[in-house]
Design goal:
By secondary structure, this protein is of the alpha+beta class. The protein has helices spanning 2-38, 43-54, 61-66, 133-136, 150-155, and strands spanning 56-59, 74-83, 89-97, 106-114, 123-130, 157-168, 174-179, 185-186, 194-202, 207-214, 220-222, 229-233. Strand 3 (89-97) and strand 4 form a beta hairpin. The longest helix has 37 residues, at 2-38. The protein is globular and about 85 Å long. The relative contact order is 0.14.
C-alpha cells in the first residue's frame, strides 16, 4: 500500500511540473512572437528590402503584349556589385531588348542606402554612370570570378545622374514609391535639358519605372507618356522564349537609346 501511494504522489508531482513547464514555454513563445511582430523596421531594413527588390531579371513582356504600340519587351537585369564603407549597396544594372539580352543599351550603377534622417523618406536610390561601361557588359550573367572585383567597381563609379527618394507605402501591392525632385536632374540626351524619374517597388519584386526628358520649354522629348514601364520577375524558362515574335520590338527605334526606356516617335 505504501508503494502504491508514493507512486501516485510522484505521478501527480510530475504532472504538475510538466504543466508548469508547458505553461512557461507558451508564455515565452508568446512573448517572442509579440516582440517579433512589434519590432520596428530599421532604416537599413528598408534599404535592404529595396535593394533585394531591384535585383534579378525582370521583363516588361506583359505590358508589351497589352500595348505593343507604346511599350517594348525590355529586359531589366541587376545584381549586387559592391558594398560601400557606410553600408550602402552598389548594384550593377543593365537594360536590353529581350531579343538581344547580351547587347545592353543602358548600363548604370545603383547605390541604395537609407535616406538621411532630415529627409522625409525611407530609402535613397541613386544612379551613376560607369567609367568603362564596355567592361561591365553582361556583368550579372558572368561567373563571379570573371566579374570586376568590388574594389574595382567602387573605383569605376563615375558621374552622378539621378537620385530618387522612396517612401514606404501602405498599399496592398506597392511597398515603396518615390521620384526625383520636380525640377529633375541635368540631361542633354535627344534635346533634353533635364530629366525626371519615378520608381515604385511592388510585391513579388515587381518594379515600375518611368523616366522622362524635357527641354527648356517643358516639352517632353523622350520617354513614354502613358505611364511607367512595368517589370515583372522573369520565369526560369524565359530564355526559351527568345524567338517568340512578341519578344521583338513592334516599332522602329530609329537611333540608339541612351537616356530613356523608349524614344518618343
Amino acid at each position: 500500500m505504501c508503494t502504491g501511494s508514493d507512486s501516485g504522489s510522484d505521478s501527480n508531482g510530475w504532472s504538475r511540473a510538466r504543466g508548469a513547464v508547458l505553461k512557461s514555454l507558451v508564455l515565452i513563445g508568446g512573448a517572442l512572437l509579440l516582440r517579433r511582430l512589434t519590432k520596428s523596421t530599421t532604416r537599413w531594413d528598408h534599404a535592404r528590402i529595396v535593394a533585394e527588390s531591384l535585383n534579378g531579371e525582370k521583363l516588361s513582356k506583359e505590358q508589351a503584349v497589352r500595348d505593343p504600340d507604346n511599350y517594348f519587351n525590355f529586359r531589366w537585369l541587376s545584381c549586387p556589385a559592391a558594398d560601400m564603407v557606410d553600408g550602402s549597396k552598389v548594384l550593377y544594372f543593365e537594360q536590353a531588348f529581350w531579343r538581344t539580352p547580351h547587347k545592353p543599351f543602358r548600363q548604370r550603377f545603383f547605390m541604395v542606402k537609407p535616406c538621411a534622417k532630415e529627409l522625409k523618406c525611407d530609402v535613397e536610390v541613386s544612379t551613376y554612370a560607369i567609367r568603362d561601361a564596355e567592361e561591365y557588359k553582361n556583368f550579372c550573367d558572368r561567373p563571379r570570378d570573371q566579374r570586376p572585383l568590388p574594389e574595382e567597381v567602387i573605383g569605376d563609379i563615375a558621374e552622378h545622374l539621378t537620385t530618387i527618394h522612396l517612401k514606404r507605402t501602405r498599399g496592398k501591392r506597392c511597398l515603396y514609391e518615390g521620384s526625383t525632385p520636380a525640377d529633375g536632374f541635368p540631361n542633354s540626351w535627344n534635346g533634353a535639358t533635364y530629366c525626371t524619374s519615378v520608381l515604385a517597388v511592388l510585391k513579388n519584386n515587381e518594379i515600375h519605372a518611368w523616366d522622362r526628358g524635357y527641354d527648356d520649354d517643358g516639352n517632353q522629348v523622350w520617354g513614354v507618356k502613358g505611364g511607367p514601364y512595368e517589370f515583372k520577375s522573369a520565369p526560369a524558362s524565359s530564355f526559351d522564349d527568345v524567338l517568340n515574335p512578341l519578344s521583338f520590338a513592334s516599332q522602329p527605334v530609329g537611333k540608339r537609346i541612351e537616356g530613356s526606356f523608349v524614344l518618343l516617335e
